[in-house]
Automatic annotation (TrEMBL):
Gene Ontology CC entries for this record: cytoplasm
Originating species: Agromyces terreus
Gene from which the chain derives: apt
This protein's name: Adenine phosphoribosyltransferase
Protein location: Cytoplasm
Subunit structure as annotated in this protein's UniProt entry: Homodimer.
Functional note: Catalyzes a salvage reaction resulting in the formation of AMP, that is energically less costly than de novo synthesis.
EC number: 2.4.2.7
Gene Ontology process terms (BP): adenine salvage; AMP salvage; purine ribonucleoside salvage
C-alpha cells in the first residue's frame, strides 16, 4: 500500500471533534482508526517504514503512543520501550520534566532497560507543540540510548512542534494539519 493510500485509509477513519477539549480546538481522534483492523495495521506499518533498518526498539509515549508502538513493534519484530507518565514504573527510573500550558509534567523510563547505544524510534499519536516528544527524546539520550527518529500519526503544523525537537531528530508524520 502506498503512503498516499495509507493516508486516505487513516483519514477516512479519523474522527474530527470540534471544540474538544475546549472551545476553538479541533480534536483529531484516532480511536476509530484503532478500531478498524486494516487502518490500524496500515498506520502501524507506515510509522516504521521511513526508519526501516535504523532502529532496534520502538518507544511508545503514554498513552496512545503505547498502542501505536506496540502494534508496530509486533509487526516488525522490534522490542518495545514504554515511556510512562511519572510514578507508573516500579523500578529505578530516569525522569524528564517538561512544560505544559499550565504547569509541568514528567516522563520516565526504567534506568538500564536497554543496552547503551540502543537505537530508539520514538512513536506517538500527535506532534503538537512538541513538549512531550522533546522530553521523550531527551530522556532517551540521558539514558545512554540513541534517538533513531520520531514518528507520529498526526502533526499539527501550525503549533510548531518540530522546532521543539532542538537536536534536529528526523521526524515523520503521516498526516499534517
Amino acid at each position: 500500500m502506498t503512503q498516499q493510500d495509507v493516508r486516505a485509509l487513516v483519514e477516512s477513519n479519523l474522527a474530527t471533534i470540534p471544540d474538544f477539549p475546549e472551545p476553538g480546538v479541533l480534536f483529531r481522534d484516532l480511536t476509530p482508526v484503532f478500531a478498524d483492523g486494516p487502518a490500524f495495521h496500515a498506520l502501524s506499518e507506515a510509522l516504521v517504514e521511513p526508519f526501516a533498518g535504523r532502529f532496534d526498539v520502538l518507544a511508545g509515549v503514554e498513552a496512545r503512543g503505547f498502542l501505536l508502538a506496540g502494534a508496530a513493534s509486533a509487526l516488525c519484530g522490534a522490542g518495545l520501550l514504554p515511556i510512562r507518565k511519572a510514578g507508573k514504573l516500579p523500578r529505578r527510573v530516569l525522569r524528564e520534566e517538561y512544560a505544559l500550558e499550565y504547569g509541568t509534567a514528567a516522563l520516565e523510563v526504567h534506568e538500564g532497560e536497554l543496552a547503551p547505544g540502543t537505537r530508539v524510534l520514538i512513536v506517538d499519536d500527535v506532534l503538537a507543540t512538541g513538549g512531550t516528544v522533546a522530553a521523550a527524546a531527551r530522556l532517551v539520550e540521558r539514558a545512554g540510548w540513541r534517538v533513531a527518529g520520531v514518528s507520529v500519526a498526526i502533526e499539527l503544523v501550525d503549533l510548531g512542534g518540530r522546532a521543539a525537537l532542538d537536536d534536529g531528530h528526523e521526524t515523520f508524520s503521516l498526516l499534517q494539519y
